[in-house]
Amino acid sequence: MLTGERVATLTGFNLLSVGGHPLATTVLIVDHDLGFVFWLGHALDGLGYSALPAKTIADAALLIMQLDLKVDVLLINVSLPGAAEFAAAVHRNQPQVKVIGILETHTRATTMPGVSIAHYKPATTDHLAKAEWIECIEGVLTSTVVSTAAHQ
To answer: Bridge-partner residues for 28, per DSSP?
Structure first.
């Protein structure tokens, strides 16, 4: 079984404290693009969030189950197979979770039940893109987000 310390060692992120208790707001990032996942996770980690990366829905489900993880924000690529069902299941078991849909640059904005907002994956991972993602996440956490799809 994975422990918080073991996951932190594997990912390099500031994830969990001893015993599986979150150090801060926990963000689970589910996307097949590991470059994007680790870029955003590293940015969140630098701001004191606990970021967990997952490449697939199965990986994300395993992290939640094995770590008995309480997720504050679920960022999920809406094009992943089973994304809508997984987001609904997480929301059913953890009603406090905020869900942000990750959109590919070539995808039209879409709605998915339970998604607070959808945001496009950046074409480049620069400071502006990082600021936009952080603003999106913080907006969802403080419920100040009003739109359903942010700009590219």
So the answer is: 52, 74
